[in-house]
Amino acid sequence: MEYSEKVMEHFTNPHNVGKLDDADGVGEVGNAKCGDIMKMYLKIENGIITDVKFNTYGCASAIATSSIATDMIKGQPISEALKLTNKAVVEALDGLPAVKIHCSVLAEQAIKAAVKDYYDKNGIEYDEAEFHFNEEHHH
Amino acid sequence: MKVYADNAATTKISKKALQAMMPCFETIYGNPSSLHSVGQDAFHAVRDARITIAECINADPDDVYFSSGGSESDNWAIKGAAHLMAKKGKKHIISSKFEHHAVLHTLNALEKEGFEITLLDVYENGIVKPEDVKNAIREDTALVTIMYANNEIGTIQPIGEIGAICREKGVLFHTDAVQAVGHIPIDVQADNIDMMSFSGHKFHGPKGIGGLYCKKGIRLPNLIEGGAQEKNRRAGTENVPAIVGMAAALKDACDNMEENTKKLIAMREQLIEGILKIDLSRINGDREHRLPGNVSACFEGVEGESLLLYLDLMGISASSGSACTSGSLDPSHVLLSIGLVHEVAHGSLRLSLCEDNTPEEMEYILEKLPPIIDRLRDMSPLWEKIQKERTK
Q1: Which of A14, A18, A37 sits opposite B382 (nearest CB)?
Q2: Which of residues 315-344 of B touch A (CB under 8 A)?
Q3: How far is residue B305 CA from its own chain's centroid?
Q4: Which residues of A are catalytic?
Q5: Looking at the DSSP assignment, which residues form a beta bridge with residue B143?
């Protein structure tokens, strides 16, 4: 197993680490039993993600995917953030080892969970199907 | 500073081993099966190596077979003994829950062939109870295979007691001694061991070479058919340089064992003491009956692979029993076998020392480790939960 330079760069110096006390949406996915939990905090103004922070418990690729995924959605409209796929995250990291692909899935889900939380808090209607994923992810 | 603390994974080859090997590439390059003098030089080198190794484990040199390493020896001994005893209608094998995968996966394969496997508990301290072995032995038990020392948590098993029980009951006894040979005194006769696997690179010998001690009278089936090497049981031209290197390394390790052990235990305890000062940390496995150079710890709220890679950035090479490093996603079966929950087992770190390490290096590890754990905990939602639970 080998990590790309990009993964190591984001693992060594992860971007957007932390919490937002005044977050508009918070999403948490994964579980401790499986060894990874991702928690995303979004600040949203006029449909734009103006700030994003994350907290992650997990392996190097879980931290690296959190870092790059938060970079990719920062400053983007919600609609664009929801389009972020795990595949795009993997590509942005110049690939992930096969056994680590689930980390990129977690990143995609964490963003969606945070947006869903924002929608729920603000009474914004949405298509349930778009947010359909197993919060208790299984390997 | 660079600190190599992953000696249970592999070791640096010793100067003595390297020096012994070099002539095997340059002058003693013959085939040990050749009758001419060039070949005979190689034959003598292999013979002398076999004698040296036999002396280190108190065996008859005729009972020492060379193989490619620990996994091959485990496969050979366990499958061989199983098939040998199956002819007598014995198809039950006793082992433990925390064996190396070279043993556990071999047992899985035998289970598919129709063998019945009993895996004994290793309890919280990571030690098999001899009375459990005694109670598990049945009329149809073909083999007992229990590791000498565990590769992750370093716990040393009561091999002498288990050997005596097996001998008394007339059951074959194999031990995977890959982590023990060259590290603690071993006497295959006193311990009533019938078969024992070992590996050169775990005691400063070269990689790709190991051996199997197999007591006279146990007719293990041939592993590789072909020439007459290893008494027809494992054909193929001997890896002369590796065999010679392994023997030199083992002799060196055994000659200096007492001195090395003292040094290692002092460094091990230095590390353990420092690690236990870290909040919500634990040491895995019995504190006393463990390999002199093994430290196995868990830190709640952090994940082992991240910890290992941040340590690497500081020049410290360690290992994690963590799932993530192995490609499987479950935490280490060893840590689960001693009763750790998944959440804790994921945060494991193994530091395995050798006599080349220094107390200064231990200080360096203890200086670098706490801030890394703090950093990981600061970004860990699991740690946040643990903290909330504690303040309740």
Answers
A1: A37
A2: 322-325, 327-329, 331, 342-343
A3: 21
A4: 34, 103
A5: B93, B172
| Single-letter amino acid code for the residue at B212 | L
| Average pLDDT score, chain A | 92
Read off the pLDDT of residues B192-228 as tens digits, 9 standing for 90 and up.
999 999 999 999 999 999 999 999 999 999 999 999 9
Q: Does B217 touch chain A (CB under 8 A)?
A: no
Compute the average pLDDT of residues B130-156: 98
Task: Flag if A35 and B329 touch (Cβ within 8 Å).
Answer: yes
Among the partner residues B305, B331, B379, nearest to A60 by beta-carbon distance: B305
> Is residue B134 over pLDDT 60?
yes
On whether any CB of chain A is under 8 Å from the CB of B313, the answer is yes
pLDDT tens per residue across span A111-127: 999 999 999 999 999 88
* Percent of chain B surpassing pLDDT 90: 96
Q: Is B285 on the interface with A (CB under 8 A)?
A: no
Is there a catalytic annotation at residue B354? Answer: no
Pick from A12, A17, A28: CB nearest B379: A17
Locate the chain B residue with the closest alpha carbon to A57: B380
- Write the ipTM: 0.93
CB contact B379 to A (< 8 Å): yes
All residues of chain A having their beta carbon less than 8 Å from the beta carbon of residue B325 are 1
Output the pLDDT for position B322.
54
**Per-residue model confidence as pLDDT tens digits over A13-52:** 999 999 999 999 999 999 888 889 999 999 999 999 999 9
- Nearest-by-Cβ selection for B309 from A11, A57, A102: A11
